[in-house]
Design goal:
Number of strands: 0
Radius of gyration: 71 Å
């Protein structure tokens, strides 16, 4: 069953598993209802066959007692009106007693009950026969006849009454015994029913838990594997394989879609790498090898627009380079002429330097001679100062 569930789509799988759980619960409820019906039927049987008949038997015994009392009254009274009244009561009690017998017979279901009932009928017939004889004998104002009837009632009717009462009591005792046995059986049945319901409920819970856990695992595990793979995919890993999922359901379609998308992106990225590599090497005369893989033209159009712009930019750079190259040639020629003029100026500068050196040497000699003259002048000045002093002294003298 679990293998069949694995092959179903997730929605159908969940629906079927729910139906299985409901079916198991329904079976458990039906079994419980059947067992409860059986128990109720057995209790009803106990009441109908063993409890309620006790009332009928008791009523029959009460009617039998009324018959006996009426007979005693009829043979004991000396007033004719009282005798007639007791006879009337007696006859009514006999009718009630005979009417109770069929109701008692209806409730009998066991062989013991049938035996007891037959015994009741036999003893009761004997009692009523003796009772009728004694009533006929003693229902009179004749004291002697009444005395004979009373003696016969003591000797014959009392034992017959005791026998009939014992027959009724025997049926009651058998009903009680059968009722007790049935009640004991019902208690055992109730225990078995409780255990059976518990087993069914536990089995249903285990099965439902197993099915639910299996379905949850079959859904959660592939989704966790797919989520971890998508994390690596978001980090740029396009080569690692995606988790395998072989069930033909919604999750399988999602895994297959992601796998197909990754494969397509890998092809597109490889193609983009080739295009960009060719353009980086200066080759702009290229075309995509998998144009059908580009879903939507925005990416491919962007690459083409970028190629056109780069191509135009490189052309402008090439033209500017040519202009710079021409300017550089002119600058080189001017630099050459400047270099030649600088060479001539350098030669003149060398000659000027030589002349300046000669002038510098002459100036140095002149400075030396000037210094010597200055020293000689100081000496002469000293001598003149000394002569002036001497002339002052001489003049004073």
């Amino acid at each position: 069953m679990l293998e069949k569930l694995e092959k179903m789509r997730i929605q159908k799988r969940l629906t079927v598993s729910s139906l299985i759980t409901v079916l198991i619960a329904s079976v458990a409820a039906i079994i419980a209802a059947i067992l409860l019906f059986v128990v109720a039927s057995q209790y009803n049987k106990v009441l109908t066959n063993y409890a309620f008949p006790q009332g009928d038997i008791g009523q029959a015994m009460a009617d039998l007692a009324d018959v006996r009392s009426a007979t005693r009254g009829a043979i004991g009274y000396s007033d004719q009106s009282q005798i007639d009244q007791m006879v009337e009561i007696h006859d009514q009690a006999v009718e009630d007693l005979q009417a109770a017998l069929p109701e008692i017979k209806k409730s009998i279901v066991a062989k013991a009950g049938e035996k007891d009932y037959n015994n009741i009928v036999a003893t009761l017939d004997n009692y009523l026969e003796v009772d009728a004889k004694i009533l006929k004998m003693g229902a009179t104002t004749d004291a002697e006849q009444s005395k004979k009837a009373q003696d016969a009632a003591f000797d014959e009717l009392a034992p017959a009454y005791a026998t009939a009462s014992e027959a009724f009591q025997g049926l009651m005792d058998d009903n009680i015994s059968l009722g007790d046995k049935t009640h004991s059986s019902l208690q055992k049945m109730e225990l078995i029913m409780l255990l059976l319901i518990i087993v069914i409920i536990v089995a249903a819970c285990i099965l439902a838990t197993k099915i639910g856990g299996k379905i949850a695992k079959d859904i959660a595990q592939p989704m966790d594997d797919l989520a971890r793979r998508l994390e690596t995919f978001a980090q740029g890993d396009l080569t690692s394989p995606f988790p395998e999922y072989h069930n033909d359901d919604e999750l399988g379609e999602m895994v297959q879609s992601v796998t197909d998308t990754t494969t397509k992106l890998s092809v597109i990225f490889a193609d983009m790498e080739n295009l960009l590599g060719q353009m980086s090497n200066g080759n702009f005369n290229i075309q995509t090898s998998c144009e059908e893989e580009y879903t939507g033209d925005f990416l491919l159009d962007s690459i083409r627009e970028m190629k056109i712009q780069i191509d135009g930019t490189l052309k402008e750079v090439r033209e500017a380079s040519e202009m710079v190259s021409a300017g550089a040639l002119n600058l080189a020629e001017a630099s050459q002429a400047l270099a030649e003029g600088a060479t001539d100026q350098a030669a003149s500068a060398q000659q000027m330097q030589a002349t300046i050196d000669e002038i510098t040497n002459g100036l140095n000699n002149t400075v030396d001679q000037t210094n010597d003259a200055y020293a000689e002048a100081e000496r002469v000045a000293g001598e003149a100062e000394s002569s002036r002093n001497e002339m002052s002294v001489m003049v004073e003298a």
